[in-house]
Design a protein that fits this description.
Elements (H helix, E strand, L loop, with lengths): L1 H44 L1 E2 L5 E3 L16 E7 L8 E4 L2 E7 L10 E7 L13 E2 L5 E7 L5 H6 L3 E9 L3
Antiparallel strand pairs: 1-2, 2-3, 3-9, 4-5, 5-8, 6-9, 7-8
């Protein structure tokens, strides 16, 4: 009889430990569900595309107006690769660069902001922030500096940083 009582006591102890483990697993599961809900909320605000382009919903910064109300507006940004930017010779001492933004899926011509980056001589250029022939799917930048060509500017690590802001197609 004492063996049976001992077995019952051991079984109760095992059940108690099992219940504690189940409670711990349930807490972790609930925490995971809460995280999953938070991730879903964030996914509604952050949209990723291929090619390293990330879109963010519009927001307000330091009293500058930005239309959060229009859920079709997005900000896309990117940068061309160092030493691999596809600069074209445009004219003597000019280089031209086409940026493809077709993956952004703009429904109207976006607003484009650019800046020219590099390790040498990019600070003494003209045109790195001027955009040309802007469409829903691309734009051009033409840069002037005496004596430049595509090989030289890639050797100086010239690259274009850009942001495109506009309404997208769903």
């Amino acid at each position: 009889m004492s063996t049976t009582t001992s077995q019952i006591s051991q079984t109760n102890n095992d059940n108690s430990q099992l219940m504690k483990r189940l409670e711990a697993v349930e807490k972790k599961l609930n925490y995971s569900r809460q995280l999953e809900k938070q991730i879903k909320k964030l996914n509604k605000k952050i949209y990723g595309l291929e090619n390293g382009i990330l879109t963010l919903p519009q927001f307000q910064i330091q009293n500058y107006y930005s239309s959060e109300m229009c859920e079709k507006e997005r900000i896309f940004f990117g940068s061309t690769k160092l030493k691999e930017t596809d600069w074209e010779e445009y004219q003597d001492s000019y280089v031209k660069l086409k940026i493809d933004i077709s993956s952004c899926n703009f429904s109207k011509i976006p607003t484009i902001v650019t800046n020219l980056g590099g390790n040498d001589y990019h600070c003494s250029t003209k045109g790195g922030t001027s955009v040309y022939e802007v469409t829903e799917s691309s734009f051009y930048v033409v840069v002037y500096r005496s004596g430049i060509n595509p090989n030289k500017v890639n050797g100086w690590d010239w690259h274009l940083n850009w942001a495109a802001i506009g309404e997208i197609n769903y």
